[in-house]
């Protein structure tokens, strides 16, 4: 099994401002970890160099007016919202990030690699058709999925694991029955959307699934949801391709969020998603980096965990140093799991109208 | 005056380079110590000892206990407790009892200690070396942080090699120092290093003979783009030169990456001492008949075709036709390898090069040169080399620390990029001069890598991390000008 990793040093160039959470430092320790692990020497790992996506590819998702605004603003610098400035040269960085996701998908489709991780910046899942938001400019995930659809992938499962609801991706596929969008995210939290009642529109009704979880939710709940929510939906949907928005701000050390996943838990989730992809769609899976701001304590270990799981490497030693143990104890809310079960029960009830896997269980 | 010594598989070659060049060979029958016992050699002494080391690497059963401290990350079974972070902080303590117990129960000939991220903080490796003191003397313990670069698995492989080599290199250094005083080792990258640096990291010597030939042939001919064909006793080595420098490559052992960089060499398993058993065979069982050996070799075949090498009357083969067939076979093998590389020019080196290179060049359709002293180009290369040094520096203003090749030092706070580069240049120059470099050889210092980023904590720029690599590249010493 070969796993592709899309990376380019230019992904470290983008910075809204030197002190912004989504800054150059984000991947520096991760790159140290990968290099120190000798990852690039492993036969099961292949470095994939990205290319900028074309305007045509981006226009399958975003309006031309927005793209024109983005291109013009990135010549001199600009502003979208309080969290999302447009630094000079942003447009080139954003095209390279979207192109990185496409490069990963192409490598999987051509058989160059079995699966892939697009370790791209800036992230994309808050980017809507007509505007950027929440550190995001172009929706890398959506651009990749539209590209996959053009290549003949009939049904694509998008799993968004970022702590923040993937509102941009949801909006883009809200009426598309060929894309099953599942998001597990902290709630209440930015951007405020992602309630269980948001289930799609028109032909897309029932193909958007939101599972909000409270702060302090830990490995146990995520692995529970993977087995009882994601697996049955995926099996019934029968995807041709699985795409994961691999936000890592669900890690317990993340300074911007309140969830409590460990690197080990993240690696195990990815491990199970790889298994699922092999059962359902010939192993075709791409993970695309989204958020994650614990640059030292979280990202080096979660990113490594994602790659190790994708490549079928031993994940038993993927963990944070003991130094963070007390932090984890404080981050986990022992009451969170019962709230997760309660929300999940309500969600199943809603989904049972459309999804047999949940209808059966209700009866 | 510059003196170079290259200890090969059959002979030890000596060369002195001053107003004129003198060169001679001493058979290895006298042993390593014998080669240096004929009195003090003149001028600055540089020694290449790759052949004996290569033999240890390929056969000598020196057992090594590999002790790792992997910390979090990819699985590394049987590792010890303890961890260093990306920033060089000790984030998990070692357990001295666990380590002492492990070392005492796994006694081997040598010990290799490798801690993940030790290049950011070497203290765990140093502490373990102290714990190992009762079981292993210093010259049988190798630490990985001296390698200077990230890649834990490659450091494991290389530190194991270093542990296997360290005692031999220490002993050789002591023998040379006792009879000759100060000297320098010649490395596989074509530069020189102090005995202290080499003993810390003896794999630096790997494949140094090929680098010596490359440098020597370049010095003797001034050719910048060519292929050197070095006809030795056991092998014929093809060494490409591009823009005046040998081509470097990473060495893999058993398909595993090491941290060793050495001159790219294509080695053919035939040389002047290759034995003839009906036809030419790879491998050496002794000298040619013409040099008192037990069986006919390629050298004897040349004599049987009319050459006069050594005591040529002793060379015997059943027929001249057979001798010609043997020489034809050897030439065809080399020509085929040369044609694949399609070089603009051939340079001959080694004792048999005057007899064989003209024919190889003609049949390959490549212009050729066999320089005067071609038979000792290797020792001449060693003599004319200069001290080379690579310094890997990480500055961390949050810790007020700089790690030079893994060894941490206090560093007075500055985050000015230009100033940090200047600090590194001054440091690598200081270290090179301390190693014995000539002042004129430390002017050409190259910045190989620079990367810096801010550490943001609480929304503010709190610290800055800067990685810098500077190098005094290998090359020919200014003393020859």
Walk me through this protein's architecture.
The complex is a heterodimer of chains A (363) and B (481). Chain A has 363 residues and is an alpha/beta fold. Chain A has one domain: Arginase, Chain A. Chain A has helices at 28-36, 55-59, 64-76, 90-109, 140-150, 167-172, 219-237, 263-281, 299-311, 325-331, 336-351, 356-362, and strands at residues 3-6, 45-48, 78-81, 84-86, 115-118, 156-160, 179-186, 208-213, 241-246, 285-289. In chain A, a hairpin with a 2-residue loop joins strand 3 and strand 4. Chain A is globular and about 50 Å long. The model of chain A has no long low-confidence stretch (mean pLDDT 96). Chain B is α+β, with helices and mostly antiparallel strands and 481 residues long. Chain B is 31% helix and 29% strand. In chain B, the strands form 7 sheets. Chain B has a 6-stranded mixed β-sheet. In chain B, strands 12, 13, 14, 17, 20 and 21 form a 6-stranded mixed β-sheet that branches. Chain B has a 5-stranded antiparallel β-sheet with strand order 24-23-22-26-25, covered by helices on one side. In chain B, strand 6 (83-84) and strand 7 (90-92) form a beta hairpin. In chain B, helix 8 crosses helix 9.
Q: Can you give keywords for this protein?
A:
heterodimer; A: 363 residues; alpha/beta; Arginase, Chain A; eight-stranded parallel β-sheet; 10 strands; 40% helix; globular; B: alpha+beta; Alpha-Beta Plaits; six-stranded mixed β-sheet
Provide a short characterization of the protein structure.
The complex is a heterodimer of chains A (363) and B (481). Chain A contains twelve helices and ten strands. Chain A has 363 residues and is an alpha/beta fold.
Please outline the helices and strands.
The complex is a heterodimer of chains A (363) and B (481).
Chain A: E1 3-6, H1 28-36, E2 45-48, H2 55-59, H3 64-76, E3 78-81, E4 84-86, H4 90-109, E5 115-118, H5 140-150, E6 156-160, H6 167-172, E7 179-186, E8 208-213, H7 219-237, E9 241-246, H8 263-281, E10 285-289, H9 299-311, H10 325-331, H11 336-351, H12 356-362
Helix pairs in contact in A: 1-9, 4-5, 7-8, 7-11, 8-9
Chain B: E1 2-7, E2 11-17, E3 21-27, H1 31-35, E4 44-48, H2 50-58, E5 64-69, E6 83-84, E7 90-92, H3 96-105, E8 110-115, H4 123-131, E9 141-143, H5 152-180, E10 184-186, E11 192-193, H6 195-200, H7 208-221, E12 226-231, E13 236-242, E14 245-246, E15 248-253, E16 256-263, E17 266-268, E18 274-277, E19 279-284, H8 298-304, H9 320-341, E20 346-349, H10 353-364, E21 368-369, H11 377-384, E22 389-396, E23 401-404, E24 407-410, H12 417-435, E25 446-457, E26 460-472
Helix pairs in contact in B: 7-11, 8-9, 9-10
